[in-house]
Amino acid sequence: GAGVSQTPSNKVTEKGKYVELRCDPISGHTALYWYRQSLGQGPEFLIYFQGTGAADDSGLPNDRFFAVRPEGSVSTLKIQRTERGDSAVYLCASSSLGGNYNEQFFGPGTRLTVL
Amino acid sequence: DQQVKQNSPSLSVQEGRISILNCDYTNSMFDYFLWYKKYPAEGPTFLISISSIKDKNEDGRFTVFLNKSAKHLSLHIVPSQPGDSAVYFCAAIGGTSYGKLTFGQGTILTVHP
Question: A100 vs A77, which has greater pLDDT?
Answer without folding.
Answer: A77
